[in-house]
Amino acid sequence: MPTDRSRRAAIAGYTEWAPQRRWPERMFMLEAFQRITREACDDAGLDPAEIDGVLSTGIPESPMFGPAAIVEYLGITANFAEVVDLGGASPVGMIWRAVAAIEAGACDACICLASTIPQPSSGTGGAWNPSRSYLGADAWGSPHGQFDLPYGLNNPNSHFALVAQRYMHEFGVPPEALAKVAVDQRTNALSNPKAVFRQPITIEDVLNSPLIVDPLHQLEIVMPCFGASAVLVTTLERARQLKRRPVVLSGFGEHVTHKSTTYAPTLVQSPIKAAADRAFRMAGVDRDAIDMASMYDCYTVTVLLTIEGSGFCGPGEGGRFVQEHDLTFRGDWPLNTHGGQLSMGQAGIAGGMSHVIDALEQLQGRAGERQLQGCERAYVTGTGGFMSEQAALILEGA
User: Fold this and answer.
1) How remote is the C-alpha of 179 from its chain's centroid?
2) Rounded Cα distance, 169 and 189, in Å
3) Which residue has the higher pLDDT, 348 or 358?
4) Which residues, in sequence order, are CB contacts of 198 under 8 Å at separation 6+?
5) With contact defined as beta carbons under 8 Å apart, do 393 and 252 qualify?
6) Domain presence at residue 23
7) What is the CATH number of the domain that holds 23?
8) Which pLDDT band, with edges at 50, 70 and 90, does 122 fall under?
9) CB neighbours (10 Å) of residue 274?
10) Which residue range(s) make up the domain with 314?
């Protein structure tokens, strides 16, 4: 982080559309970006005309020059504009890039945009329609298309099942440990009005749900849905003049090791370790200084590997860790107090941003019934691809 603190950045506001399994209206991605930009600015009390930085994922309406299309549609000009392509880790990656850009003096107010909604030309009728070719496997020369897809590695379930199978075998982790992650997060979701799933579940319910890809059961896998969210980052000085409590980034890390599980260095350790170590080193705090964690949870096994890799317990101890701790917002180790993507719903790329917003709600005292007492520091992670692209943030109330 820069030594000149006069340019320190802070998160000033956000917006999040509740995930929905069937989207009620058709709109272009640019329309969604315009709406959530205005909502995030309204939340903070900032005039959208002050935005001079834009971060987003790719948009269907402009496969090339996406940032230019966004600023044109928003009616602004930008001194910093970038597409972030880290899969589910993209939103977390956007946050630290926005902070870095502001602290480097590249811009003064940056909007981070994440949206997954059905496009008017998709023909899905507003229902989820997964891509026929995951990871761009139909691209000419794609290694994934040539060497993985023909052998059944054609969707996330199969890749993460390999990870779960190896992890459970190597460390003797019982299925009940993975199931408890889903149960505790469902408890959190029951108090989140934005959550898709609002019925309590038990460990038995999880293990009795249909086996999708051995050893992963239906209730251990995210339900894809639609949604959108935006986070506004500006200078700390400006944020202090606005409506919300500023939240600063004290540490961050990012690490990418592979694309396909076939080429993963190991199936039992996540690249989050390097990202987390860098984030904690930068922040200058120990793990026990964290008041809550919001970890990317596309599958239950993802959470165990992230807890371990982030240094909250040793290798192979994730199962015991979750069984010994209460992960609900009422418990001793609050995790994914919004319910996680497993129970709130995975709104595509916006699902990754839900973890950032989960932490912001707690740090700004806006979590309602789920509000933690004395929450001052949060740890947030993002996972992209198949445990391959990892990013970590340490956020603090200012």
Assistant:
1) 21
2) 30
3) 358
4) 189, 190
5) yes
6) yes
7) 3.40.47.10
8) low
9) 17
10) 5-119+222-397
Is residue 185 in a domain? no
Could you read off the pLDDT of 72-102 as tens digits, one per residue? Answer: 999 999 999 999 999 999 999 999 999 999 9
* Helix, strand, coil % over all residues of the chain, rounded to 5: 40, 20, 40
How crowded is residue 140: how many other Cβ atoms within 10 Å of its Cβ? 5
Average pLDDT, the chain: 92
* Cα distance between residue 206 and residue 396, in whole Å: 34
Contact assessment for residue 184 and residue 333, using Cβ atoms and an 8 Å cutoff: no
169 to 38, 218, 268: CA distances (angstroms): 49, 20, 10
Q: Report yes or no on 139 lying in a domain.
A: no
Pairing of strands 292-294, 80-83: unpaired
- How many C-beta atoms lie closer than 10 Å to residue 181's C-beta? 29
- Count how many domains the chain has: 1
Strand order in the sheet with 80-83: 80-83, 53-56, 109-116, 227-235, 9-16, 247-256, 389-397, 377-384, 292-294
Q: How far apart are CA 183 and CA 224, in angstroms?
A: 19
Distance of CA 118 to the CA centre of its chain: 20
CA distance 8 to 331: 33
Q: Return the bridge partners of 389, or none.
A: 256, 384
Q: Which of 219, 194, 187 is nearest to 335 (CA)?
A: 187
- pLDDT at position 320, please? 96
Cis ω before 334 (30° cut-off from 0): no
Q: Percentage of residues in the chain with pLDDT exceeding 90?
A: 81
What is the pTM for the complete model shown?
Answer: 0.94
**pLDDT 10s digits, 298-308:** 999 999 999 99
* Number of residues in the chain: 398
d(CA 322, CA 319) in angstroms, rounded, equals 6
Checking if the pLDDT of 123 tops 70, the result is no
Q: Does residue 71 sit within a domain?
A: yes
Residue 112 CB partners (closer than 8 Å, separation 6+): 55, 56, 91, 94, 95, 98, 230, 231, 232, 233, 353
Radius of gyration, CA atoms only, the chain: 20
Q: Kind of pairing, strands 377-384 and 292-294?
A: parallel
Which two structure tokens, joined as six digits, stand for 123? Answer: 């023909």
Token pair 């709104």 is found at 347
